[in-house]
Each structure stands twice: as structure tokens, then as C-alpha cells.
Amino acid sequence: MNSPYAVELDHIHTAFGAHRVHRDISLHLPAGEIVGLVGASGSGKTTLLREMMGLEYPSRGHVRVLGEEVADTCALDCRQRRNHIGVLFQGGALFSALSVFDNIALPLRELGIDDEGLIGQLVCMRLAMVGLNAHDAMLMPAELSGGMVKRAALARALILEPELLLLDEPTSGLDPVASEDFVSLLRELHHELNFTVVMVTHDLHILRDLCDKIAVLADGRLIAFAPLIEVLKIDHPFIGEFFQNHRARRVFNAMESDHG
Ligand SMILES: Nc1ncnc2c1ncn2[C@@H]1O[C@H](COP(=O)(O)OP(=O)(O)OP(=O)(O)O)[C@@H](O)[C@H]1O
């Protein structure tokens, strides 16, 4: 990649029929950072992630991912680019008919790799990275706890060593302990592998503890893109509602006093 930015969005407008979701969004995400994407329900967060993956196209504007224009590439380039993007969407989205092992191995097999010894080695490495063992690998998704589903889905998202990881509500449905474990795991893996992360999340602890910057969508526009401490100072009704309610104040107070 020859750009300092993992994702570049320039003047994105997205409409579904008469429904305008994005109105002139420009956002450049530096490579190697963890960015949290926040906004009210229906503000177009998931659609923005889908546009980064090339699964959806904006009505106007440019999306560049890992230095390449998304709309301009042919199907083959698009598939090649997707090999550099790891994705973990809500619910983990493991294939229920495949074991954990086969779910994690799937992107390798889809690439045409048929050396089962190599596949076994790569899957075992990723299993160990996310804290799962050989016994877990033989289980079916229905036999896993919520935290294990997320770990298995993360292992699959990382199997091709992506430069960019897109996560949609990665801790939704997890209890606080499993959620904290998942956040620690993500922090360690990010430190080790240095990928860029774009993550839709409402989880205040993730925003506080993990994200380098927060991008906030409201009224179809990007109203903030800054470290959390700066976002908290912005005077906007959505920021007031989301970041300055009782619960949020308890989570963020310690941080604000640390920064004076
Ligand atoms: N393929 C589609 N066709 C029509 N409308 C769509 C389509 N995809 C998304 N939308 C609409 O676009 C808007 C934004 O959807 P999106 O899922 O991106 O929002 P979101 O911010 O991720 O919401 P949530 O936090 O509830 O998941 C919603 O009103 C949704 O109904």
C-alpha cells in the first residue's frame, strides 16, 4: 500500500431511493489506527463499512481502501482487495454447518489452497492467537459460548493476515467479562499485527480503552473525527445524548480528570 491512509472517503453521498443516508462524508483513516464509528441507529454506519468492502457503492463520491479506488476495480481486483480485509459482522456469522476448524479454514480454501497440512498449520496458529484450542476447533458453532463465537470469527477474519479489519458491534451479545476479554485480545493482536481497525460500536469501554479516534455520524454527516477526549468537548445534540449521559459520564470521568 502506498498511501498513509487505510481508508479514504471523499464526499460520500449515499441514498436508497429517496432516503438519503450519507450527505457529503469525507474521512481519511490513518493506517495502523483503531477507529470507532458511532452514530444513532440508521445513521449509516454499517452501510459505510459495506462501502469500504465494495459490497455497496455510494451514489456519489470516492472510496479508496488500502490505496485503491473501490468503485473503479474489476471483480478480480475487488476479490484480491477483499483478501486484505478481515471482516467480523454482528453475530459472528459463522457457518452453522461447518466446524470451527472448517469455518476458519474457509478463506484459505476459497483462495484455492488445498494443502491440508498447510491449512492445518495456519488454522492452529490463528486458533492459538485467539485463545482457542484443538478441541474447540472440532466443535460446531451451536456448541460455542458467545465469546467463543467471536473468537472463532476473529480467527477467520485474521486467517489471511489482513491489513484492514472491519468490525460491526464486535462485543454485542457478550457479558461484561467476555466483552473485556475480547477487547484485551483485540488490543494484543493489534499490537502484534499492526492492522488498521474500523469498528462500529456503542460500547463505551471500547471507545475509551481501545480506539485511537472516534468518528461520529449524525444527520447524514460526519460531525466529529478525533480522539475521544476531543469528541467529548464538541457541542452537538447527538454527542450530548450519547457521550454525556449518566452512564457515559461515569465511564469517561476518570479519563477527563487524567487529561486535566
Ligand atoms: N440495501 C438497502 N436498501 C434500502 N435501505 C437500506 C439498505 N441498506 C441500508 N438501508 C437503510 O439505510 C439506513 C442506514 O442503515 P445502516 O444499517 O447503515 O445504519 P446503522 O447506522 O448501521 O444502523 P444500526 O445502528 O441500527 O445498525 C437505514 O435507514 C436502513 O434502513
Automatic annotation (TrEMBL):
Domain ABC transporter stretches: 7-244
SUPFAM superfamilies cross-referenced by the UniProt entry: P-loop containing nucleoside triphosphate hydrolases
GO MF assignments: ATP binding; ATP hydrolysis activity
InterPro entries linked to this entry: AAA+_ATPase, ABC_transporter-like_ATP-bd, P-loop_NTPase
Alphabetical keyword list: ATP-binding, Nucleotide-binding, Transport
The keyword Nucleotide-binding belongs to this UniProt entry's keyword annotation: yes
Pfam families tied to this protein: ABC_tran
Entries under PANTHER family matching the protein: PROTEIN TRIGALACTOSYLDIACYLGLYCEROL 3, CHLOROPLASTIC (PTHR43023:SF3)
Protein name stated in the entry: ATP-binding cassette domain-containing protein
